[in-house]
Amino acid sequence: MTRLVGAELLKVRTTRLFLWLGLLTLALETLVISLHVGKDSLFSLGEPRQQRDVVSIAAVSALISLILGIVASAGEFSHGTIGQTFLVAPVRERVAAAKLIAGAFAGFVLAVIACGFAWGLAALLLAARSVTLHLGSGSTVRVALGTILAAALTGAFGIGLGALLRRQTAAIVIALVWLLVGEPLLLGIAGVERYGPGRVIASVVEAGNQGSDLLSFGAGLSVALVYVAVAGALGTLSLSRSDIT
Amino acid sequence: MADAPLEVRGLTKRFGSTTAVDGLTFAIEPGRITGFLGPNGAGKTTTLRMLLGLVHASAGDALVEGVPYRRLRNPARSVGAVLEASSYHPARSGRNHLRVLATAAGIPQARVDETLRQVELEAAAGRAVRTYSLGMRQRLSVAGALLGEPRLLVLDEPANGLDPEGIRWLRRFLRSFSAEGGTVFISSHVLAEIAQLADEVVIIHRAKLVAHEPLAALTARAAGGTIVRSPDSGRLRERLAAEGIEAEAPEDGELRVASPPERVGEIAAAAGIVLHELRGESASLEEAFLELTGAEE
């Protein structure tokens, strides 16, 4: 299993996918943090809660990690490389498991980089405005840890979704439309919005800082794990049963 | 008895109401080059993909060294497969493509450069595959197949799109692989290529097996006639006609007889006619193939 996970990570490293998605994450962080620190009042920026909000843009890495997982998984079908993958590792369930682990690890690494960059940039810009730093406060650190955990989960979820849908663009569009439109609309009407995948991931990111519109961290993490398990199982089933023609 | 490198028994694949492969049964011999022939759509690729565990059989067995591909302990060490030239991530370099395969198969990374040398692709190894010509992609496919130093190579239409130099390189390579004891199972619709390479042929048509025999036997059987030279060819022709056997005389002293050499020889001996030459007439592989696959048209 270790060598299969290693091969999956090598696949991610040997194209520019990780690089471009990483740069996109850092660019978004730079934009949002610069606007935040440049626009907000000094009084407001001096509050720990406000500083936590400034760096919480790092949570965008959870969304980027979802896209990373989808592209890494569905890309095997788009480029026709899945056949070669199964030739060297014909037990497809093992390949699926390796992909899920690699997706989670790639998400983890992306989020660590995103958090490190966000904290560093925020510290630099806040210091430039002579604001006392509170970036090490408990609630801010919890957001960083929650973000890293969430990105690992969305990375694995993306792998499962990509294996299930097999078309990169379609899978990304479906995921984004669901998160931005479908979930607020449909689940809001049904009154169970807190259980939607996007809100569940938000409750993991908030890691105990959340208000009443989100599940608690523990409940959110449990539901998120169920989502990952279901996507992983369906993706694995799809890989196992399909003919590679 | 050792298991055949490849064996199929009653192998069948149905896609909905279409039967792509219908009850195929054959086994290939170790250490030989076996051509796998059939018109487009006959079921060659589907059969190969079932052998390699990529397509699930509807019925029957597809075995590699006696077990289904999925149960091979280390497939890359047993079988090297060359499927399609387009199965690459366009942004990944040739070397990195092989590194991924080697990592997944537990093969030392040193083999990557060895196989790149073997297929004469070292100079382009660091370039993205999108910049490769079709011939270079085929060589990369062959390199991937060789990574685990397998005993068996399975190739699906490897000459497709290759220029004459590429085809010559492939032919040379397969001959040398076979000469070192390797087994080759190669599908192709380029009959001239198979005629130059194969020891045996398996021919399928409309999803069914129509022939599996040594190439020489197939071409001889397809022709079925005899070339005979005799100083007394006129009398021989008369005796053959008396036995109801037709004979043409393309040249003076030579007859082309529509009967096997054994029968012609017996008639000549019974009549005390001297023969200077008696040999079975061979058809080309193309003629044999068309006879077998065209009969049902």
The Rg value of chain A, from CA coordinates, equals 19 Å
Count of discrete structural domains of chain B: 2
Shape, principal axes of CA atoms of chain A: globular
N-end to C-end Cα span of chain B: 40 Å
**If helices are DSSP runs of H or I spanning 4 or more residues, what is the number of helices of chain B?**
11
How much helicity do the residues of chain A have?
over 70%
Overall pLDDT score of chain A: 89
Largest sheet of chain A: none
Low-confidence stretches of chain B: none
Distance between the termini of chain A: 26 Å
Q: What is the ordering of alpha helices and beta strands of chain A?
A: HHHHHHHHHHH
The coarse silhouette of chain B is elongated
* Number of E-type strands of chain B: 13
Looking at the structure, the CATH topology of the largest domain in chain B is: Rossmann fold
Instruction: Write the CATH homologous superfamily of the largest domain in chain B.
Output: P-loop containing nucleotide triphosphate hydrolases
Fraction in helix of chain B: 25-40%
Task: Indicate the CATH architecture of the largest domain in chain B.
Answer: 3-Layer(aba) Sandwich
Strand content of chain B: 25-35%
- Number of DSSP-assigned strands of chain A: 0
Which secondary-structure class do the elements of chain B indicate? alpha/beta
Radius of gyration of chain B: 24 Å
Describe this structure in a few short sentences:
In chain A, 80% of the residues lie in helices and 0% in strands. Chain A is mainly α and 245 residues long. In chain A, helix 4 (48-55) packs parallel to helix 8 (138-165) and helix 7 runs antiparallel to helix 11.
